Amino acid sequence: MADTKKRTDPQSGYCAETKTFHSLRPSVPLPPESQPLSFPSFALSLLRHQPPSPSTPAFIFPSSISKSLSLSFSDFLSLSNSLSLSLRVRLRLSKGDVAFLLSPLRLEIPVLSFSLLQIGVVLSPSNPLSSPSEISRQIRLSRPTIAFATSSTAASLPPDLPVVLIDSDHFQSMFIRAGLKDPPPPIEEIRQSDTAAILFSSGTTGRSKAAAIPHRSFISMVAGFQPERAEVKMVLAPLFHTMGLILCLGGVALGETTVMAPAGRFEVGTVAAAVAEHGVTVLAVAPPVLVALERGAAEGIVGGLESLQRIIVGGAPLSRQAAERFVRRFRHVWIQQGYGSTEAGGIAVMMREDEWENYESVGKIAKNLEAKIVDPVTGEVLGVGQQGELWLRGPFIMKGYINDDDANASTFTSDSWLKTGDLCRFDENGYLYIVDRIKELIKYKAYQIPPMELELILLSLPQITDAAVIPYPHEEAGEIPMAYVVKRPGCHIDEATIMDFVARQVAPYKKIRRVAFVDSIPKSPTGKVLRRELVSHAISASASKL
């Protein structure tokens, strides 16, 4: 390791001998990998080191959702201990069991998630809006022992799977310590390499896959969060997504107050109201929310967000124009862009406060991670400034996909590098730039076109509020770039103007050759464009005209 450090360029983090990029971040000590340790045990050790007041809220449901609900740190710890005991004694759950979670966000969910992880049960949360076929596939992959659902979601589960209703008296009684005739069985030793959660990939380029995330991944990420602890953090990412789960449960470890917001329910005005009501200092959102906040301020719907200091943005690309408009509007707030994925453990790359004005980049790789840039066609390992597939290796990375040997073989190398599927490059200062998903590149004749590049150009037009570019089948070219565009209310812009605007800024083969206007762009809960839906829509619309 010492020799590698000597050979590493201190500016870019690149080692020419191993063709590997190393982190430039300050060292983050991690517990020895061989030490038995669950994520909740690690979280509680950090909490004891810097304990909040027992009455400090651990979690809050803002009043702009319904009536205001909160859970103090004292109550959170007491309830999670009681529930852990009930899960073991009353439900007979133990290490290695898998608990499928299908529920809208409720105040009990963080307690249940923490309690399951405490006793070594694998947490497998799913989007409650998933279709029956999606849920069926997820259950086949994760093979749960039990499911936790609500009265509104339980019907989507198979009849032979035992279900506990979170909104039932039976579940609520589990928070009460009942008298035990015999002492409970001891909790089995949990290793850092044991699976903590099975999380489902977004499936934007195909069927969703089940990623096994070890306890050490959560431990490593939260250890890296310590220098940027927030007083009050509001998280709009859902808890069935890696980013939402790690930010919420990581907040417990860091003694933060986490304001919770159900995905898809908040309007921009209620986001701003919750920030003001609870003195939110850090807001974690997908790019569309940041854009909506700036637009809301311009229209007088959103106030100054005086308490806000930092806004974490991830899950999808943020255009430079949108970032600049936001910081002009809210000069006291800095934008912390990041990059991660379910497979890479959530947040593998992140901006720091002295770096944030480099809008095109998502930051520098986290401590304890290594990266490579590899030509996806030839397999050649590339260097600084060269564009290729991003490979990552380190403690953040998933163990692999559950029950999917083919996917694992195509995703991991024999020496444990994760192939992210993202086309990226590093610059001479170690900043990472995301170009696009390799599988989403448009194949025009002999060229490959990144849709994201064209989308960012489209979003620089003031008349456009959102846009997505897809591959449209073409007999001669194979595929051509087609744009779906959402116009700003009251603005008039036509197809020819849009195509001409883009054509002036790109090589001829990258020109947009079709445009369709829509009211909204379909996206995942984290803001990723669902291109497959748009491709299906474009093809079916064309077929209907024949």
UniProtKB/TrEMBL annotation:
<dbReference type="InterPro" id="IPR042099">
    <property type="entry name" value="ANL_N_sf"/>
</dbReference>
<dbReference type="InterPro" id="IPR025110">
    <property type="entry name" value="AMP-bd_C"/>
</dbReference>
<dbReference type="Pfam" id="PF00501">
    <property type="entry name" value="AMP-binding"/>
</dbReference>
<dbReference type="InterPro" id="IPR045851">
    <property type="entry name" value="AMP-bd_C_sf"/>
</dbReference>
<feature type="domain" description="AMP-binding enzyme C-terminal">
    <location>
        <begin position="453"/>
        <end position="528"/>
    </location>
</feature>
<dbReference type="GO" id="GO:0016207">
    <property type="term" value="F:4-coumarate-CoA ligase activity"/>
</dbReference>
<dbReference type="GO" id="GO:0009698">
    <property type="term" value="P:phenylpropanoid metabolic process"/>
</dbReference>
<dbReference type="GO" id="GO:0106290">
    <property type="term" value="F:trans-cinnamate-CoA ligase activity"/>
</dbReference>
<keyword id="KW-0547">Nucleotide-binding</keyword>
<dbReference type="GO" id="GO:0005524">
    <property type="term" value="F:ATP binding"/>
</dbReference>
<dbReference type="Pfam" id="PF13193">
    <property type="entry name" value="AMP-binding_C"/>
</dbReference>
<keyword id="KW-0436">Ligase</keyword>
<dbReference type="InterPro" id="IPR000873">
    <property type="entry name" value="AMP-dep_synth/lig_dom"/>
</dbReference>
<comment type="similarity">
    <text>Belongs to the ATP-dependent AMP-binding enzyme family.</text>
</comment>
<keyword id="KW-0067">ATP-binding</keyword>
<dbReference type="InterPro" id="IPR020845">
    <property type="entry name" value="AMP-binding_CS"/>
</dbReference>
<feature type="domain" description="AMP-dependent synthetase/ligase">
    <location>
        <begin position="54"/>
        <end position="401"/>
    </location>
</feature>
<protein>
    <recommendedName>
        <fullName>4-coumarate--CoA ligase</fullName>
        <ecNumber>6.2.1.12</ecNumber>
    </recommendedName>
</protein>
